[in-house]
């Protein structure tokens, strides 16, 4: 039912408006991938990959490590079976593929997943993905068809499609599945909460356990406040687009289950801009600004006993990954994972050492300033956010909002499906 022609025309129009770093694969690339029967998903967060029907999941084969079973901080010894660098680093942090292609699915099966507007667009462009039925069922749902306004009908279909796809993924990945909350609500606390409750009602209808779900919310103050209220109800949240310590600390205080920091994007911003005090302080001390933010946030979470798990995304190379060993999740691109897999794990390697860099024990000795230890509120967070976090957060929200709009426009063009 989904039309690749509709995707292409929509994509060409919208991509002109979107920042390059936030675009989904180009229309030409998407069309070529459709013709080959495969689609490359650029995931922002937990990786998402529609599996081939013949692929069978085995949690033992996934790239996964329990944070509670990580080696001691000073350990550089390699355990039995750690034959390559990927095995070695997986003993310290949970390594999740960032970009997964169907052809690479068996090599790097994801341990968790994100369902997003971008994923829905990709599913509609595939001729035979196992998730097409999940989207088609949403398009044909009578409860959506009966709604009076076009806006409510398309929103209903989008919600149903997200939940249906997520319900399929929950059966396939051993970890949690994160559902993207419409970024057009990023500055509306009540709107975010209503949307999450709407999605949860749909999850209840298909019997998806709440402990298998996360809800992905932008790190605006309104989003963080929504996370606080949702977490108080026992609903797990995933705060994304974190680019400053103020956002990370506020999200931790709110009790967010997962906090996602984009290491490489902060580095990119620093290469082309100036005037951000937090970034300049890190650079003056000889640190990469993205890695420094992960380190400070990790130490803050563990020193003060917050429950949040920290996710380092936009990791660009092996050195980034080795510098972050011990963080709960590392989202790594395939080229880095392949390099790790192809490299034997050599104890006391001159270039890379298999040592956990971030630990709860060392976090207790990290010193924070009085300004960093405030009870964060909307005013203090806004005042502490520098130009990098303001610009990158705004760009991220805009990119996600455009994706959600594109999905609804696509569904509007292909609804009603036959026999509805």
Automatic annotation (TrEMBL):
Pathway: Carbohydrate degradation; pentose phosphate pathway; D-glyceraldehyde 3-phosphate and beta-D-fructose 6-phosphate from D-ribose 5-phosphate and D-xylulose 5-phosphate (non-oxidative stage): step 2/3. Its EC number is 2.2.1.2. InterPro entries: Aldolase_TIM, TAL/FSA, Transaldolase_1. Keywords: Pentose shunt, Schiff base. It comes from Camelina sativa (False flax). Belongs to the transaldolase family. Type 1 subfamily. SUPFAM superfamilies: Aldolase. It is an enzyme of class 2 (transferase). Gene3D superfamilies: Aldolase class I (3.20.20.70). This is transaldolase.
